[in-house]
Amino acid sequence: MSDVRKLTKMALLVALMCISAYISFPLPFTPAMVTALTLVMCLVAFMLPPKEAFIVLCVYVLLGAVGLPVYVGGTGGLGKLFGPTGGFIWSWPVAYTLLSICKGKTVSFWSYAWRACVITIPITYAFGIAGGMIVTGIGFNAALAGYALPFIPGDIFKCLVASWLATKIRL
């Protein structure tokens, strides 16, 4: 694949991540939000080799870090990275690059789906819970209840949708 085509694909996926972060809504009992961004990050992992996926994820994190409103709900800045939900943001380059590394050679819905659920969900929530506990000072059980448990069913669904889409999209 040519460098121009590869860079264009990467840029489009960064743009799609930025747009998908606006497709989100809050829950009244937690600072974390439900978002379409996690679905798109699974697509990034499935559609790119690990090095390119890592670059795309880091570019996205850096765009938000410098203050562009690309994070969930149209937010950005260092305050978001070091705020109650910043742990989630820090997890994304780790979790989704690892998914790209472990996706396997076979393009298969079930292969993608179980890997997405088993790799990304635990890593993302481990970082998110830890970040929430550090910043807010709440205990583990409160962090688990506010930062993870309400979101897991939706994240499983988004992993399934991303897995299905990744088997259908040929770039």
UniProtKB/TrEMBL annotation:
The chain crosses the membrane at residues 7-25, 31-48, 53-72, 78-101, 113-138, 144-166. Keywords: Cell membrane, Membrane, Transmembrane, Transmembrane helix, Transport. InterPro entries: BioY (IPR003784). Gene3D superfamilies: 1.10.1760.20. Its main location: membrane. It is found in: Cell membrane. It comes from the Bacteria. It is a multi-pass membrane protein. Belongs to the BioY family. This is Biotin transporter. It comes from Veillonella magna.
